[in-house]
Every structure is written in structure tokens, then in C-alpha cells.
Design goal:
The chain is α+β, with helices and mostly antiparallel strands and about 850 residues long. Among the domains are: about 350 residues, no CATH class; about 90 residues, Jelly Rolls; about 120 residues, Jelly Rolls. Helix content is about 45%, strand content about 15%. It is built from 30 helices and 23 strands. The strands form five sheets. The protein has a six-stranded antiparallel beta sheet, with no helix packed on it. It has a five-stranded antiparallel beta sheet with strand order 15-16-23-18-21. A hairpin with a 2-residue loop joins strand 15 and strand 16. The longest helix is centred in the first third of the chain and has 35 residues. It starts with a helix and ends with a strand.
Amino acid sequence: MDRRSRIAASVLALVAAVSIWLSLGTLAIAGGDTSRIAALPSLTVLLALCGAAVVVAQLARLRLEHAWPLAVSLLIWLPYLPGVVPSVFLIWQGPLEVAVWLAVVVGMVAGRPAAAVPRALGSPALAPLAAAAIVLITSLAVFSQVRGVIPGGDEPHYLAATQSLLQDADLRIENNYAAGDYLDYFPGRLEPHFLKRSMGGEIYSIHAPGVSAVVLPAFAVAGYVGAVFTIALIAALSAMVTWRVAFRLSSSAAGAWAGTAAVFLTAPYFFHTFTIYPEVIGGFCVLCGVWLLLEVADGREPSTRRLLAVGAALALLPWLHTRLAVIAGVLGVILVIRLAGRPRAMGRIAALLAVPVVAGAGWLAFFYLIWGSPNPAAPYGPDTSTSASYVLRGLVGLLVDQQFGLLITAPVLVVAVAGSVLMFRQQPRLTFELAMIVIPYAITVASYAMWWAGSAAPARFLVSVLPLAALPIAVFWKAHRSTGVAILLVISVALILPRALVEGGRLIVNSRGTTDGTLMWLSSIIDLPLGLPSVHRDGGTVAIRDAALWLALLATAVLPAAFRGWPQKTYDIWGQPPVAWTVSALAFAIATTTAVGVVGAFHGAVMTTPDRSRLAAVGAYRPWLHETLVDLQTRRSLAADEFLAAMSIDMVTPAVRLNRVPAGDYEVRVTTPPASPVPLAMFIGRNDPPIEAPLLDDLRDGRAPFLLRLPVAVQTLNLTARGDVGAGQPQLTLRPVRPAVPAVEGNALRAARYGHARVFVFDDWAYLEPDGFWTRANGSTTVVIDTNDATRLAGLPISITAGAVPTTIRLSTGGWERSVSLEPGAKQDVVLPPADANTWTVRVRSGAGFRPFEREPGNRDVRELAAWIAIQ
């Protein structure tokens, strides 16, 4: 029996080896819906992987009962099956392959004995500290990677009020905006956020001052980073309190960890742990109140100090945002009712309400003294942008919208609903009280016309009550620990990875639109957003239908996890053997595949995205690795030229935009060009000047093709006819002819041509202009300069001119480095050394700079400029 088990484990290892071989390849739609062309490593590589897999399995003495998770990798085979396959099979190609391997790894690791878990994680004394440390460290680590996209939205406006308090000891912010105080942490121009001036005609921010006051001490010491650290620290403390409260309610350390992770390590809460908004602070205040509620519910006598502290937390809520007054009022009433039946009730109630009464009176006086009315809506003027008619749409969006919905971005939170039912059976009064905290508040924020909170991470308005979801999840985990819940938790945690790691965090924040950027990135071959609910795209009714279908199919995936007949020989972390994990993971994969296909079919659109798939395939294609090129539809081998020809993209002018175009050389041709000479502008970004502009007539068949060379991948490539193309709408063809390894990882955001040279930039630390570019002061950036062979061999001459203040510019490329110190307006010529290729990758480090608006009256340019660089 042991020999059979090891042989079966070796077979599964072979399955995983083939899956690895497929993961090393790439795939594109060649024609129709699912006619596919694959580029795979050689068969020699496949044989080597298979041999290595068997050897490792034998050396590790791998047995079948522990090897089952390897079978999950069969999902990677689906897109590569020959012949005609359902289009939804293709979702398992591309970045989602990482999710498959994550399921394999977690399943293998979770098959270890439960004793392998560190004891500290189960200790009621140490586990809360571990939870706080995990949240704090991961929050600050991700913050350090996404500095290019934050602060954004309303964040700088909260900090502007902080600066007003620090510098002027008031909240009149007009002078702070006029002086550009916010430029210390935000690079663009901002105008004050207000809708109604004060009684004295002054401008006060429409944003409540509570957040500004809370982050003030750390901001005074460390500026913006100090403010972020404050929010991250409060989030960590919230995780610690949440773990304790969840453990007290469930009496399960594993349940407390499941609940805490489901909230603090998933997208809706996690991406607010380093942003300057009221939600995380408000959530901590709510947790303080709920902690007291549990103590009173358990029959414990709260101290006066505890009552005063909780009262202060509740009193802070309205000062953070007016909508949080709903929570403060409801939670305060619940606590008063609980205390009313206890000994010395009046004294305890007085201690609880002492601070809120004073703070509440001050809060109403704040509005009266500034805007002439105690109404908290006074700063908004006549239009508060709220209505009961928005509630249903808002609730649907906050729950299931693909961009901003709680359950789409963190599906494990659906377990909170099931856990609440279980809690109600055990503690009906407490469950009802917690529901009364959440439901009125959710209805309040759903009544906003902008329920999605503008440019923000998912479900921002619900973050303040989100930690309460950890309680029913912990209770459910203890009662029904299953691989189904574990898989939902792993999926939810994994969904933060692309948002945090891809393109410098640009996927974290969504704005009102019809598709989620993360879903677009997860699949370049399938229109994945089409298969999920979208309130902005389809409205609330259709989104409910789509969400109901998803819920029904995922519910069927839970059935294998609920099966109690698994063999009990294996003891593992989940309490069930690896075979249960494997079957449950495959069941969830089947449910997901089916849901995407059915919802997409309801919308009546083609699911495949041929052009995007071809661009992704060209970017992944490496001739030295991908020697096996095959048409999966006809089962025919292809030559490299045939493969690249199949990657051609046909487009119709006058304007075309392609996203994420990989590095390489591309032929551009046109059919039926216009009669008059019309240039085809090729530019990177939105409004930059073209890097190439050939005449459409010169691109027609029969003439030498125009070669577009991209030394780096570009975020967007725009092809726009600058003139009248007539009624014919000429068709363009972009054909890759020579894939290239990019000179720099990442996508160029902008580019400009300066004579024979082209400059590509990747961030906001270089400002391209028609004759050259400015470098941003006190920072560094990387630019790629592309030129011709003659210049490459001779070296590239450039000039550096200082701005209005003395500065130092350091240039480096390869092993060459040069430092130039300049007085105001001084110019220095520098020659970059000859390059081995046609490009220079130049690191530019800039010293001090100036802001034009500070030097020239009437100038509105707030950029901090160090030096001007021109190509000669």
C-alpha cells in the first residue's frame, strides 16, 4: 500500500511538472473566439521537469495523502487543450496561474500537522500582539511601494487642515492653499474643498477636523510619513483589539485569527491602513465601544476609567465625519440600555456620557459659530447630495460592485452573514445590537449619491464598521472549520497582491467606471470584468442578478467542504486532509469558471479579448525559451515568423489606443489611405507630442513598412490620424517583427522626441516639454534615451541648465557616473558615453529646486524643478 501511495504521488508530481511547463509558456487568441496559438518551452525542458519532479517526490518520500493538492494544477491545462474549448477555460492562463500555484502551495503546507503552527499564534496573550505587528509591518511595507499614487483623493485636504492648525492655530485654510503648504506631500495644484463660506466670508474645509487633529502630533515631527504612521498604528491597535474581542466571543484562537485576517488582510480595510481618511480611526473608536459592550454583556463591571475612555472614543466619531455620528448615537444608546440594569447605573451612565455631552455640544457649536446654524449639514449648503432614492443602488454597490463592493473584493466576508445567523442562535441580544450598529450606518452611507467615495480603495465608507465582521466569522470558524472558508480566506487575502505590487499600486484606487483595473490585469485573454457584477455599468437590478448567480454557484462549491466522510488518518491545520482541500479548491474553480461564463453570456458579448492577448503574448515571448510554437486549433507547429505574424493587430483610424504595449520592433501598415497627406501621430500617454508621425500614404501596402521601435514597454500607445481621413476609415495593422527585452522593467508613462533622440519616462519625477525636460527636485528618476547608430557609437551630448536656485545633478548609466553642481541659470554640457545598444538607461538624481509660482507673480506652476536637460 505504501508503494502504491508513493507511485500515485509521483504521478501527481508529473502532473505538476507539466503544469509548470505550461506556466512557462504563453497563449494568444489567433482568430475567432478561441482559436489559440501557444508558445511553450522545448520538449527537452518538459522532460527535464518531469524527471526532476519524480526524483523530488521519491527523495521526499511523498505519499498520495499529502500530494493531492498538486492535482489543482490541472486547471492550468485547460487553456492549452487542443481543438475547440469553451472561452471561459482561458481565464486560467496568465496572472491567474499564480492563484492556482498559490492554492497548490497552501494545500501542501496546510497538510502539515497542526502542531507545526507556532504556539505563540494560539496564545491569548501573544497572538493579539502578533496580529498588530503583522498589520503594521505589512501596511508600512506596502506604503513604501505605492508612494507614486498616494496621497490622493481627499487625503491632502485633511493634511492641509493639519498644517493650518500647526502654523496658524486655526482652520481657515485659504491662506495655506494659496501658499502651497500642501506641496510638501502632494506634487500638483490643489484648490480648497468647500461649498459654503463661513459667516465671516472665510473658507473652512468641508472635511471635518477630527482626522487632521489626530495625525497632527506625528505630522509635526515627521510630516506626511508621520501622519501615515499614525493611521497604520491605529489600524494595528484595531487588529489587536479585534483579535481579543473575537477570541472572547468565540473561545477559539483559530477563529480569532480567521476573523482578524478576513478583515485586516483583505482589500477593503487593508488599503485604508496607510491613507489619511476617517475610517480607520472611526473603526478603532467603534471597537472600543464594542469591547465595553461585550464586557457588560458578560456581566463584568466596567471601571470608571474604562467608561470615560469609551465615552471619549464615541465623542470623537462625529468630529471625524458627520456620518459617523450615526454610529456614535446608536452605540451610545445600546451601552446606556445595557448599563441601566446594572448596580450604580446612574453613575456609570454619567461617566460614559460625560465626554460625549460636552463634545457634542461643542460639535454643534462649531457649525453654529462658523456657518450660522447648528445643523451638521450647514457646510454643504443647500445640496447635501443625499437621498433615500439612492439607498438601494448604494447598498448593492457597496456589497457587490466589482470595483467598490465588499464581497467582490473580499469574498470571505460573506461568511460573516452565515456567522451572524449562528451568533443570533447563541446570543440573540448581542447579535441584534451589533446589527443595529451596522445597518443604520450602512443605509446612511448608501444614501449618498457618491456611495463609492470617489477615487478610493473598495468600500471605503464601510471600513469603520468592518472590524465587527470578524466576530461572526470567528464564531462560524469555530463551529464549522472547513476548507471552504479557508479557500475563501486565501482568495481574499491573495486579491490584495496585484493591487499592492502591480504598477506601483495604480490598481489600488478606482474611480467611477465600468471595469475594475485589477480584474483587467488578472486576465489579458478574457474580459473578466464582463463576468462580474457592476453597478456603474449595468445598474443595481442587473448587478443583483449577476451577484445572485455568483452566490448560488459558489454555494455549490461549499458542499465538498461540508462533507464529513473524508478519511481521518491525516491531521492537518484545517482539521481536514489535503484531499478535502483539493476537491474544494477544484469545486471553487469550477464554480468561478461557470459563473464568469454564464454572467458574460447574459450580457451577450464576446468574452475573449484577442488584441490584449496578443500584446501580452508578445511581451512574454522569448525566442530562446519558447521553441515550441503550435496552433492549438489545428495542432500544427509554427515557425517563429508565423507566430509573430499571427500576433498582428488590426485597427481602424482615426484614433486608436493600445494599453500595455511590450518592448520590440513593430511594422505599421495601412490599407486604403486617404487621398490627402495625413500624418499618423504615434504618442505615449495622453497629451504628449508624437514620437513618430509618418504619413498614412507612406504606410500603404507596396511600400517599405514603417518600423516603430519601442525600447521599453509603454503604458499606452496612441495612434491618431492628424487630419481628415475621409469616409474610408483606413485600417492599420501593427505587426511585431522583433520582440525585445525591455531596457527597464515597468511601463513608460510618457515619451517625447527631441530631434534624433526619444526620451521615455516612467514616473512623475521628470517633466517632458517640447524642447527638453525638467527634473523634479530632491529625488531621482530613470529615463531611457533612444537614438540612432551614429550617436550610439559617438556618445550622446546633452546640456544641463540649473533653475532659479543652485543645484546638483548626478547622472549614471552602466558603470559611468557624473556629478554636476550648478549655480542658478548656469549651463553644463555633458556627453553620455557610447552605448552597447541603441539606448541609454540613465539614472538622474536631482538636488535643490524652485517652484515657478513662488518666483513669478501670476504663475500657477507649482512643480518643484531642479534642472533643465536638453538633447543636443
